[in-house]
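Incident log, entry 3
Record: Beta-glucosidase/6-phospho-beta-glucosidase/beta-galactosidase (438 residues)
Problem: checksum mismatch between cached and fresh output.
Input:
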Amino acid sequence: MYRKFMFATGIENSVPVVGQAKRRVDELEKCGHYKYWQKDFDLVKELGIQFLRYGPPIYKTFLGPGKYDWTFADLTFEYLKKQEILPITDLCHFGVPDWIGDFQNPDFPELFAQYAGDFAKRFHWIQLYTPVNEMYITALFSSYYGWWNEQLTTDYSFVTALKHIVKANVLAMKAIINVRPDAIFIQSESSEYYHAENPKAIKPAELMNARRFLSLDLNYGKRIDSEMYEYLMDNGMTRKEYHFFLNNHLKRHCIMGNDYYITNEHRVSANGSTRAAGEIFGYHVITSQYYERYKLPVMHTETNLKQGPNGDEAINWLWKEWANVLRVRNDGVPIVGFTWYSLTDQVDWDSALREDNNNVNPLGLFDLDRNIRPVGKAYKQLIKDWREVLPTHSDCLKVPIQVPSNNKETKEDNAKKDEDNENKTDTKTLLQASKNTI
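Fresh output:
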């Protein structure tokens, strides 16, 4: 059992297609990871971080049904294994290979499940997965805002993308469990809230606040309310498709990942338009809403803020988010980890990746020359200060994570170990909280 708090970072691997020319955006390339991947992993180790949100570029790896190029994945994941850095493996981050097309393709779920299962067979030592990153945002940006991939803007296209994306996630979980029965899935999902700015905006805000839960409701097999059921049925989901989600019970394998940025809260006008509200409720209040709905262990899976002219803006945000994490824990919510996302600065996220301006966004623990930023130093110190304190002074969970040995083991040996473990893991029962509070 892993009894320490899971401090993490991530390496940005978004790969959406944008613009009329269907230009592929590859953040691994823009941020220099293909060149500096070994250095990047060494930096993770240098910070004292053991968990890394990371995945191979799906469009370069998944070449066709049953066809793969594992070259880069073999190099990178073998190095992670030797370093005993545990990947939370991110298999689909905002885009699909060209040959699949986009998220309107009804064949995507089954194709992706095959990819996930074959990945798990090849990298049998990996236990932690985020099959599809931010399912709600992927559908929203691709098929409702019209920014990425299929670039559509209707409720029907949104529901179509959403049901395909969540089904792909569910089928991928099942495929991975068939290979690795003790797999744990950390759903990195954006935790949103919509504020009505006047009485006439209450109704559209209520609809948006109901819609924000759809991806996780479907993923966890939760019966949704009548208004959202009608919304799904009116926009192309069938009763059979809805019951597919109700009948798949994989929640016990899951930790709910909640992403929170200063852009996650929105002001809603009477006509349904939205704009950024800034931090109003904050991570503590919104995550508590999600926890009350799903009653799952929680991990803060993404946050960041730009380093501004004073040099301490990101540091102050780090401490604010950490204070929210502690508040969540003190309220009795079983929270197992925290993530600053990402390891290095990102590029062109100021335009949501839609424009190729090569604008460096100073959001990382390190800049793109791999020099540590002030927030990187602060995060390293935070980890050092809190890593040993939390397990003995707070509601702490024992997470059933196995740390791989540096010794190479055959897949057959690993498979035998899984059989001896009775092929069952229930994260809800195996994650055991102590009774102490800070």
